[in-house]
Amino acid sequence: MTAITAPASPSGRLRWACADGLTLIGREISRIRQEPGELIAALIFPAVMVVLFGYVFGSAISVPGGGNYREYLMPGLFAMVTFTSTMAVTLRVATDASRGVMDRFRSMPMARSAVPFGQTGAEILNGILGMVIMSVAGLVVGWRAHNGVWQTAEAFLLLALMRYALSWAGCYLGLVVKNDQTADQLIPLVFPVTMLSNSFVPTGGMPKPLQVIADWNPVSALTAACRELFGNPGVSTGDAAWPIAHPVAASIGWSLVLLALFVPLSVRTYRRRGR
């Protein structure tokens, strides 16, 4: 039998990795189709959050400067779901590692970078579907985007970029823990990160140390960016912390930092596990 070797040219290796990555994205989609319960739970969760937080918090919290609390809330929920999706990738990767799927991939003539690219690429497809469901739920409870099609599209692209960047962090964490039980126990740890932000309440009423942490939390930057682009209440004033005063730039910056850090870490960790 003739051994299959990697192409010698950089462009050939890139095409090889992309082709294998697309194959693994198809594998993830097929797996979800065979186990629809996971997808249904992931899609119901955002809709439940819209109804729960919109009507529970909405009866007790006033929006700075006035406005509908549900319109204030929706960008925060978009950001929250974007960040909590990290753990879904962690759990999938850790499950594959614990069941020996990763070892089978390493024994195949495929690009080593294709596995993490396939896992993170599939998460983008899940994220798009989740954002559609959440948007419909938001429209039902009274949320609207007021700044036109282009800025609305920019907000959703920003959410997709952050979700993709976070999926690489989740991929790396899943490769490190290598155990689905451990990954499952890590899930609650992401909620304090999303709660200590401006997602649900203004940060101005927090104690000063917590306010500083919340203002520099990437969740807050993404939430503020979505409020600005959607034209929803709660847009920050000029005296806010830099990430809140320039939320779009801050969100793009956080996304690029995450990609620059976790893409090479994930690929390197996957390669080293096979040695």
What does this entry look like structurally?
By secondary structure, this protein is an all-alpha fold. It is built from twelve helices and no strands. The longest helix has 30 residues, at 69-98.
Write the layout of secondary structure elements.
Elements: H1 10-34, H2 36-56, H3 69-98, H4 101-106, H5 114-141, H6 148-177, H7 180-186, H8 190-195, H9 208-215, H10 218-230, H11 242-245, H12 247-273
Main features:
single chain; 275 residues; mainly alpha; 12 helices; 0% strand
Number-wise, the strands total: 0
Order of helices and strands: HHHHHHHHHHHH
Structural domain count? 1
Helix/strand structural class: mainly alpha
Shape: globular
Summarize the structure.
With 275 residues, the protein is mainly α. It contains twelve helices and no strands.
